[in-house]
Specification:
16 helices, Rossmann fold, D-amino Acid Aminotransferase, Chain A, domain 1
């Protein structure tokens, strides 16, 4: 919906595509046109490029916003659009390609002074070489897919004797998920903070960062609660890192929206994790504290506008915003819980923003990610924002599928979260 509303702000008509599983989705009513592209399974609809190209042709669209997920970071799709004289609202295909390969993106960002964790190159098939790389890096370490995303396939390894088999499993999963079995090793940080920086750039060599978000509360390496500004972190170190990232992005010539994700160790040092070349699920957190419409900025950048025109004044951060991702999943084991939404009544009230693609009476299918809503609370201070978010989640009426709301409330009530001492292992700590 946020993409359609951004287009409306700019006076641009919109055509939305949908699968049979999403035929009742509320965003379809907001679009000027809606086009069915196939059955529920993603491979037959949202990942079916032939169906998408036909929809583009039928609608007469001259630009495509890929959203997040599916083909949003697919360089081949972006190039195919360019070949059809259709603009891809995002970075150029070259940047999708460069940053989509985690090994190559690490090399590139390191060249521009962004700090790095110790890691291996792309792993060979030779078992002895794999073990040698593991011993060089030191245990514990993390196996990661070079073409992966969303935390999929990441495997921690604590001792050498388990490494080779774990690499084999990671390769197989990477091949099934990303059609790319490349993996590499990275030093595993214990209880790090996950802090990311919003980047906006144009096609004229200009770039800036629009502050940071703390995304440390995760389960299965996937974010569930995000906030801005990052709590209990030295503002000077954040500003210095933002400046380094801005300079790197500008110097390399990046040309649209993106997010540079960093890990902060217990010693306070920052190291590069990855760069996402798309709109983030959590972009609304930044919008709430800056009053910047990032989707509008993304569209204007893709259209060739200069950053100085997109941002008439330098963005400022005011107040505090916290977002919770509401999933249809078991709140204990975090397994997806598809089902019929017998009741679905999102909260409202002062400082509350809800984004969802669902409505009462729809089915949460097993075809897609089980996130069913994002609830964002904004206030003048962090304590009030947390209270507003907690109160909103407590009255979010959902029946049918299980949801993770009990877990979200547990996190928000925890001493660690209340004090701002969050880390990526918080969910595990609360379950132990």
């Amino acid at each position: 919906m946020v993409k359609i509303r951004a287009l409306k702000k700019l006076g641009i008509p919109s055509a939305a595509v949908y699968s049979e599983a999403d035929a009742a989705a509320p965003y379809l009513k907001e679009a000027d046109e809606a086009l069915l592209i196939g059955p529920g399974p993603a491979k037959e609809s949202y990942l079916n490029q032939d169906a998408l190209f036909k929809a583009i042709e039928d609608s007469g669209a001259d630009a495509v916003h890929p959203g997040y997920g599916f083909l949003s970071e697919n360089a081949g799709f972006a190039r195919a659009l360019e070949n059809r004289d259709v603009a891809f609202i995002g970075p150029s295909p070259d940047w999708l390609e460069k940053m989509g390969d985690k090994v190559e993106s690490r090399k590139l960002m390191a060249e521009y002074g962004v700090p790095m964790l110790v890691a291996s190159p792309l792993l060979p098939d030779d078992e002895a070489a794999i073990i040698a790389e593991g011993e060089r890096i030191g245990f514990p370490l993390l196996i990661k897919a070079t073409g992966g995303g969303g935390g999929i396939g990441m495997q921690p390894v604590t001792e050498p004797k388990k490494l080779v088999k774990a690499v084999g499993r990671a390769r197989a999963l990477a091949e099934r998920t990303f059609s790319n079995d490349g993996v590499y090793l990275e030093k595993l940080l214990e209880r790090p903070r996950h802090i990311e920086f919003q980047v906006v750039a144009d096609k004229h060599g200009n770039a800036c960062t629009v502050f940071e978000r703390d995304c440390s509360v995760q389960r299965r390496y996937q974010k569930v609660i995000e906030e801005s500004p990052a709590p209990a972190v030295d503002e000077k170190s954040l500003s210095a890192l933002a400046e380094t990232i801005c300079k790197a992005v500008q110097t390399m010539g990046y040309d649209n929206i993106g997010t540079v994700e960093m890990l902060r160790g217990e010693d306070g040092s920052f190291t590069f994790l990855e760069m996402n070349t798309r709109l983030q699920v959590e972009h609304g957190v930044t919008e709430e504290v800056t009053d910047v419409d990032l989707v509008v900025a993304q569209i204007r950048s893709a259209a060739g506008d200069k950053l100085s025109d997109i941002f008439e004044t330098e963005p400022e951060s005011k107040g505090h915003a916290v977002q919770a991702r509401v999933y249809a999943e078991d709140p204990i084991k975090f397994f997806p819980s598809p089902g019929h939404l017998e009741t679905f009544r999102p909260p409202a009230g002062e400082g509350i923003r809800v984004e969802t693609g669902y409505a009462e009476g729809m089915d949460v299918t097993p075809f897609y990610d089980p996130m069913i809503a994002k609830v964002i609370a904004r206030a003048e201070d962090r304590k009030t924002a947390i209270t507003r978010l907690r109160d909103a989640l407590a009255v979010f009426s959902i029946s049918g599928p299980k949801t993770n709301i009990p877990f979200l409330l547990e996190v928000l009530d925890s001493e660690e979260f209340q004090s701002g001492q969050v880390h990526t292992g918080l969910a595990i700590d609360l379950r132990s």
